[in-house]
Amino acid sequence: MSSNRSIGQATRCAVYLGIASAGLALAAPAQAEPLWPGGPDVPGVPAIVPPAEITAPCTIPEARACVRLSTNEAWLIDNRKVTFGPTPISHGMAGYRTPPGATRVFIKKEFHWSTMHHAPMHYAIFYNGDIAFHVGPIERESHGCIRMTWDGARAFYDYLNIGDLVEVVP
């Protein structure tokens, strides 16, 4: 009787091990990208549709910064390819609209004090007269400057150099 009990225990143990190993095999399938957004994952099969490349709306190939006023977004670009962004911005309010067009960076100051508005301008990059990219509240419109988050302003400050072209589109 004890040998029957041992055989029964061995059989149960083998069954449990088989179930456990099958569960482990199913628990970690190979990961693949979906065939289309929201589509099924097929192990070992790459996505048919490549992920969309981020593009900026500016058209001047030499532009290094691109701003779209209508969507409050800005990008850093190199030969029309996005290197950073989009990053959220705010721009000029009525009576102080940020003008569209293309101009060049002519001053960079890590910290600038606006004597016109008695306000700090961290990571200021002047590109159109007294208009600059700088840190500021993006929830409110400015007096013409492009206000940015700390991360956005720092990325623009580190990337842009005096003489670089900035394109602003409506």
TrEMBL record:
L,D-TPase catalytic domain ranges (all copies): 63-169
Any single biological process term in GO: cell wall organization
Signal peptide coordinates: 1-32
Keywords of this entry: Cell shape, Cell wall biogenesis/degradation, Peptidoglycan synthesis, Signal, Transferase
Biochemical pathway: Cell wall biogenesis; peptidoglycan biosynthesis
InterPro entries membership: LD-transpeptidase (IPR050979), LD_TPept_cat_dom (IPR005490), Transpep_catalytic_dom (IPR038063)
Catalytic residues of the enzyme: 134, 145
GO molecular function, one term: peptidoglycan L,D-transpeptidase activity
Keyword Metal-binding on entry: no
Gene3D superfamilies for the chain: L,D-transpeptidase catalytic domain-like
GO cellular component, one term: extracellular region
Signal among keywords: yes
PANTHER family registered for this protein in UniProt: EXPORTED PROTEIN, L,D-TRANSPEPTIDASE
Protein name, UniProt field: L,D-transpeptidase catalytic domain
Organism: Nocardia otitidiscaviarum
